[in-house]
Amino acid sequence: MSNSDSVELPGVSVEKAMKELSEGVILVDVREQDEWDAGHAPGATFLPLSALQERVSELPRDSRLLIVCHSGGRSLRATNFLRSEGLDAVNVEGGMSAWSAAGGSVVVDSHTANADED
């Protein structure tokens, strides 16, 4: 294998990711603020790719991290970076698009969410 060959980074299906989340694994959403605001997985940690290098120290070094974006491209880059920093990061294949298609819950944070609930 030459240095120009692509390296296969670990990835998990959204179904496996959902199972792992129920076991206490951390989901990190690397999409940008407007995408996060439009809806994200419950319990996810918001850490946009644009701020990842500056804020990598905020992530736990002793936990498995599942990395998600919209469709899997940015999360793959984030996974590569986090693994180079020594973290146990795994890409969620298909991103939030696949998450939603698989019936995964999506929540929207809002300052008025409680007032709007019936």
UniProtKB/TrEMBL annotation:
Describe the location of the Rhodanese domain by residue ranges: 21-108
Q: Name one Pfam family in it.
A: Rhodanese
GO MF terms held by the record: transferase activity
Q: Which PROSITE patterns match?
A: RHODANESE_3
Supply the InterPro entries for this chain. Answer: GlpE_sulfurtransferase (IPR050229), Rhodanese-like_dom (IPR001763), Rhodanese-like_dom_sf (IPR036873)
Q: What keywords does the record list, in alphabetical order? A: Transferase
Q: Which PANTHER family match?
A: FAD-DEPENDENT OXIDOREDUCTASE (PTHR43031), PYRIDINE NUCLEOTIDE-DISULPHIDE OXIDOREDUCTASE (PTHR43031:SF1)
Q: What is this protein called?
A: Rhodanese-related sulfurtransferase
